[in-house]
Each structure stands twice: as C-alpha cells, then as structure tokens.
Amino acid sequence: MHTYPFTGTGVALVTPFTQDLKIDFDALESIVNHVIDGKVDYLVVLGTTGETPTLSFEEKCLVLKKVLEVNANRLPVLYGIGGNHTAEVCDAIEKTDFSGVQGLLSVVPYYNKPSQEGLIRHFSVIAEKSPVPVVLYNVPTRTVTNLNAETALTLARECPNIVAVKEASGNLGQMMEILKGAPEHFSLISGDDGLTLPIMAMGGAGVISVAANAFPAQISSMVRLASSGDFEGARKIHYALMDFYAALFCEGNPVGVKAVMEILGICGNIFRLPLVPVSKQTYERLKSLSEYVKTI
Known about the structure:
alpha/beta; TIM Barrel; 8-stranded parallel β-sheet; 8 strands
C-alpha cells in the first residue's frame, strides 16, 4: 500500500461538465478508471486542473465522493482545499469528510499577497486543523506570492503534518535549496509536467501531472524509469513529450488537456466561464501531437 509522502505519478484530475454545465459524473468515472489503468500512483482531486474556483462547496464534496467510490481504495487520494481566507479554509476542512483521503493539498493564498510570515502562520493553522498530512502548493504564476525555500523549510521543520511541497514556481535553484535542507519526512513534488525529469534528477519525488489525465501510461512510465535510476530511458520519453507539453499549456490549463481528452473520446471539451475552449489552431495542433504521443 502507498504511504505519504506522495511519490511517483499523481494526476491532477479534471472536472468534466455536461452541455448544461453540470458535473458529468459518468465521464468522471471514466477518467478515474482511465488513469488507474494507465498505472498512475495517486489521484489528486480538485486542484487547479479541477476548475475548483467555479465549483460550490456541495459540488466539491460530490466530486470527492464520486472519485472515492470509483477508486475503491485502489490508489491514495490527495484532496485540494485552499484559499486566501485562512478561517474559511479551516472551516471547509472541518466540514469535509476525509474518510478514504490520505492527504490535503493546499495552495498559497492568492490575491491578498501575504508576507512569508503570513504564509507560515496560514499553513501552520491549516496543518493543525487537517486530519491528514498536508502538501503545500506553490504556484506563483497564479497566486502572485512565492513560497520561498526558507519558508517551505520552516514549515517542514515546525509542522510534522506538512509532508511535501508541490513546486510549480519553475525556479530550479529554489527547489534545490528546499531539497538540500529538507527534513527526512518532507519531499518535493514537481507541479510542472515539463520539469518533472530535471526535478527528479535533483531528488524530487515525482509529479502531480496534468498531462496524465490524457496519457497516464506515458507519464507514469517516464516517472518510473527516473525513479529506478534509468535516466536515459526517462529522457527519451521526456524529449518525445516536449512539443506536446508546449501545445498543452500554450493557452492555459485545463483548457489544453480537456481539448486532448475530447480528441481521445474521454470527456467533453466544456468549461464554466471565465474559462473557454482553446483556439481552433491549438486544437488541431493538439490533435496532431496526440497521434504522435500514442506511439510513445
């Protein structure tokens, strides 16, 4: 059985919608089975890729319930609860049933730009409130605020319940500082598909992947090769996927991956505003690249 910290390939699940913008629970079931069949190591429910800002609290609970039901304890589950109002995040944690959930993913507060001291206090309170281990999520392109290495390490040392950071800053120097100083119970997970291999070479614990929604077998194969020290084999897959990654994220996330999932017949290319589908040009590019990725 897998234990925390979360290692290998996690997949940041998309939330599929029907034409009338309700949650498509049948498609969600297909997605969960698709990624498990593709040999991913754990499921991440309601991160950025799950279009969480457009879901109500009740809808979030229903998505989690459905994923847990379909998963049937096959893989560990990391569940996203974050925000820029600390008391509200704690309230959501309190109201959530964590049965069957192995970890909590919580993003750096956005918009109100807290100081590093503010981040330490915010996450310390969340760690105390959470009934499961906490994974920090640093994605400054979305939150504006960067969780710096010193802050991540302070939280790792002072809060035993904080077990990892999902790093999507793109700053490899910062990540090396974290890896160099991390206590034994604390790991660093790539939050960027395109940087997974270099991060693993530095000592990272794998990836929380967007691309694995569509191509779980290819991503998890690359991560397994890197985990076993076969960097030559992992590099072949990494470089073969580079053009695909570029197209996948060129208009944002999850608009790219949902286009690919429609192309593959897994779920619809449907969004709640303010997100809209990718342009026709990007869609055609993704269609062509998806044919190639199938052969990897």
